[in-house]
Amino acid sequence: MYVDDLATICDGVDEARQLVQRLTELMQTGGFALKKWASNDPYALTDLPPEDVSSADESRLWKTLGLHWNRHSDHLTFLPLPDIRPERDGSKRQLLSLASRLFDALGCLAPFTMRAKRLFQSLWLKGLDWDDQLFLDINSVWCQWKREMETLESVRVPRALMVTPRDQVRHSVLHVFDDASEAAYGAVAYLMTESLDRAKEVRFCLAKTRVTPVKRLSLPRQS
Predict the structure, then answer these.
(1) C-alpha 70 chain-centroid distance
(2) What's the rounded Cα separation, in Å, for the pair 193 and 156?
(3) Where are the alpha helices (DSSP H) in 39-180?
(4) Helix (H, G, I), strand (E, B) or coil at 48
(5) Residue 184: count of CB within 10 angstroms of its CB
(6) What domain count does the chain have?
(7) Are 153 and 81 in contact (CB under 8 A)?
(8) 57 to each of 71, 72, 74, how far by Cα in Å?
(9) Structural domain that includes position 108
(10) 50 and 66 co-located in one domain
């Protein structure tokens, strides 16, 4: 639970219904009423009164910890930031302000956000002041980055790391890949699950990126 939002997972509908009942009773002892319940399986909420359940609108997205969740398709997605003017010239201050508004804790947008990080580093290396107008070459790249921000809603990441029920899992393997260059380095993790019937599924877990420090390191050291 984070502030006033509760996010959790269960192995099945029966477990989810029991959890809903226990949480409701527990919070009521303190005078708190849990509302706006949502689940990717509507049967998990059948014991709740209709006024405590969120709308069944399939286009609605639920937001928690900066992530937007579509409960019907059960995937995480992103929404373009409002009030973005792609053609407007920017400054170092505006670049940092806009890039920091794009919250991506899991690294789903790592290749995209890394470009903004590299732009910001290049401005430091060029000695540009906070409110100076960007150089033409950098401003062109910056405007293109802002235009591409409008396509973020097309990014969809499955929420569940594992679809196969746990009692049907033969084994799971966490694969981590990393790489480094003179500009940046990063790592990404995927979970591979094999069921008892030997069907395999691979899901994205997490990605982390960093720009290469100004004080250059060897590629093996970066890795």
Answers:
(1) 13
(2) 20
(3) 92-101, 110-125, 136-148
(4) coil
(5) 19
(6) 3
(7) no
(8) 10, 9, 14
(9) 59-159
(10) no
Match 């540009």 to its residue by tokens: 128
Q: Are residues 144 and 85 in the same domain?
A: yes
Domain boundary among 126, 144, 159: 159
116 and 93 housed in the same domain? yes
17-65 per-position pLDDT tens digit: 999 999 999 988 988 888 889 998 989 999 999 888 887 666 678 887 6
Q: Are residues 38 and 75 in the same domain?
A: no
What's the predicted TM-score (pTM) here? 0.81
Q: Does the structure show a pLDDT above 70 at 217?
A: no
What is the per-residue pLDDT across 111-163, written as a single tens digit (0 to 9) for each?
999 999 999 999 988 898 999 999 899 999 999 999 998 898 899 999 999 88
Q: Is 158 helix (H, G, I), strand (E, B) or coil?
A: strand
Q: Which of 159, 176, 193 is the last residue of a domain?
A: 159
* C-alpha to C-alpha distance for 151 and 164, rounded to whole angstroms: 31
List the structure tokens of 75.
């995937």
Using an 8 Å Cβ cutoff, are 184 and 118 in contact? yes
**Cα dihedral sign for 56, 61, 63, 69?**
positive
Q: Which residue has the tokens 């670049």?
A: 95
Please check whether residues 155 and 64 belong to one and the same domain. Answer: yes
